[in-house]
Design brief:
By secondary structure, the chain is an all-alpha fold. The chain has helices spanning 2-29, 35-61, 68-73, 80-85, 91-110, 113-116, 120-143, 168-183, 185-197, 204-211. Helix 1 (2-29) packs antiparallel against helix 7, helix 2 packs antiparallel against helix 5 (91-110) and helix 5 (91-110) packs antiparallel against helix 7. The longest helix is centred in the N-terminal third of the chain and has 28 residues, at 2-29. The chain is elongated. The N and C termini lie far apart (39 Å).
C-alpha cells in the first residue's frame, strides 16, 4: 500500500512538471489552447496527493510501525487527536501536509468567479508558476523527505510524540500556519503571472479576498 502511496506522489510530480512545461511551451509560442488541459492536470495531481496523504493518515491511525515516520512520532498509547497531529509533527509529514494544502488551493482557485475573469494569458502564466511550485514540494517528498520510508524490522512500539508537543496548540496551530504558507502560493503566482503577462494590476482583485 505504501509503495502505491509513494507512486501517487511520483505521478503527481510528473503531472505538475508536465503542466508547468506545457504552460512554458504555450507562453513561448504565445498560444493559449492548453488552459483546460492545465486545469485538468492540476485536479488530477491533487487527487494523487490526497491519495498519498490518506495513506500516511491511515498508517498513523493503525499504528503501522513498519513506517519509519509512524515509529518516530507515535506509539500505541498516543491519544487519537495527537495521533492525527503526528501527521505534521515531523519534516516529512509537514511537507506532505503543506503540499496537500497547495494542491487543494489550486483546485479551489478553479471554481472561484475571480479566476474565471482572468485573461487566458494570465491563467497560463499563473499555472506555469503554480505547478512549478507544487512540483518543488513533490520533488522533496519523493527524493529527500519521503514519509513512506519503511523499517526492515519494525519495532514493537513507537517512540511517541515529543511530550512538549502534546498540547492542544499542536493540534490547531500548525494546520493554521500551513494554511497560510500554502494559501499564499495562489496570490504569489497570480502576482508573478500578472507581471509576466504584462497585466501588472490584474492580480489585485482576484487575490484580495483570498489574502483576507
Amino acid at each position: 500500500m505504501y509503495l502505491a502511496a509513494h507512486a501517487a506522489m511520483l505521478i503527481a510530480l510528473v503531472l505538475s512538471l508536465a503542466g508547468s512545461a506545457f504552460a512554458c511551451q504555450d507562453a513561448w509560442y504565445a498560444h493559449f489552447n492548453k488552459i483546460k488541459l492545465l486545469e485538468r492536470l492540476q485536479c488530477l495531481a491533487a487527487a494523487f496527493v490526497v491519495l498519498a496523504s490518506g495513506g500516511l493518515l491511515y498508517a498513523l491511525l493503525t499504528r503501522d510501525f513498519s513506517l519509519s515516520y509512524v515509529a518516530r512520532y507515535t506509539d500505541s498509547t498516543l491519544p487519537f487527536f495527537y495521533t492525527v497531529a503526528a501527521f505534521w509533527a515531523g519534516q516529512e509529514g509537514s511537507l506532505l501536509f503543506w503540499e496537500l494544502l497547495i494542491a487543494v488551493s489550486g483546485c479551489l482557485m478553479l471554481i472561484l468567479p475571480s479566476y474565471k475573469r482572468l485573461s487566458d494569458r494570465h491563467k497560463l502564466y499563473f499555472w506555469m508558476f503554480f505547478m512549478a511550485a507544487q512540483a518543488f514540494f513533490l520533488l522533496l517528498l519523493t527524493a529527500m523527505s519521503n514519509p513512506f520510508a519503511t523499517i526492515a524490522i519494525p519495532p514493537e512500539d513507537g517512540q511517541g510524540l515529543n511530550p512538549m508537543l502534546r498540547n492542544i496548540g499542536m493540534v490547531l496551530h500548525p494546520p493554521l500556519l500551513f494554511m497560510g504558507y500554502a494559501g499564499f502560493t495562489v496570490p504569489a503566482c497570480l502576482a508573478m503571472g500578472a507581471v509576466m503577462a504584462g497585466e501588472k494590476k490584474a492580480w489585485n482583485a482576484p487575490a484580495h479576498n483570498w489574502v483576507l
